[in-house]
UniProtKB/TrEMBL annotation:
Its cofactor is Mg(2+). This is dITP/XTP pyrophosphatase. Mg(2+) binds at D71. GO terms for cellular component: cytosol.
Length: 199
């Protein structure tokens, strides 16, 4: 099997690490768009799929390579699906994971137990070139709850708050390979691989 070079339309190291781990066994070499100095695309759409398409087409246009974009986020039932597509910028345009997590805990301070239901959602889009008329699109979701305080050192984003009742731990406490098997991103990548003609 000849290696496939693919640009990931993100500079997020956590996403890059997870996607590389899942795709490298299939002969896919994943390169971050930062390696090509690709300008970040403006995520102006109201849905994950539209934002993923914007990012994938942008990365393919600048690099000349097939591009994979991941748009994902956390949807909390008690917050009417927020932070949703704004997950990375929930506490403001320059917010980091710590600030986003703190804002989420504050928003859920009055909620308990099942009221703290949440899901991670991931939409992946693969375009072969910037004008690909038939992009491959895959989606995965991961159900859980929001913990009352962060736990664990692994993962990134909201992982320290994403409580898995059936595992008795947060996503940040899972070993990386277990997280990749269970997660919204892992599910979406397996769907994508099943439909990817080159593989």
């Amino acid at each position: 099997m000849s290696a496939v070079r693919l640009v990931l339309a993100s500079g997020n190291r956590g996403k890059l690490r997870e996607i590389q781990a899942l795709l490298s066994p299939h002969g896919v070499r994943v390169l971050p768009q930062t390696a090509f100095a690709v300008a970040e695309a403006k995520e102006t759409a109201p849905t994950f799929v539209e934002n993923a398409l914007i990012k994938a087409r942008n990365a393919a246009r600048y690099t000349g390579l097939p591009a994979l974009a991941d748009d994902s986020g956390l949807e909390v039932a008690a917050l009417a699906g927020a932070p949703g597509v704004h997950s990375a910028r929930y506490a403001g345009p320059d917010a980091d994971d710590r600030l986003n997590n703190a804002k989420l805990l504050e928003a859920l301070a009055e909620f308990q137990g099942e009221e703290r239901r949440a899901r991670f959602r991931c939409v992946l889009v693969l375009v072969r070139h910037p004008f690909d008329p038939s992009p491959l699109i895959a989606e995965g979701t991961w159900e859980g709850r929001i913990a009352e305080a962060p736990r664990g050192e692994g993962g990134f984003g909201y992982d320290p708050l994403f409580w898995l009742p059936d595992r008795g731990c947060t996503a940040a406490e899972l070993p990386p390979e277990e997280k990749n098997r269970l997660s919204h991103r892992g599910q979406a990548l397996r769907q994508l691989l099943a439909r990817w003609p080159a593989l």
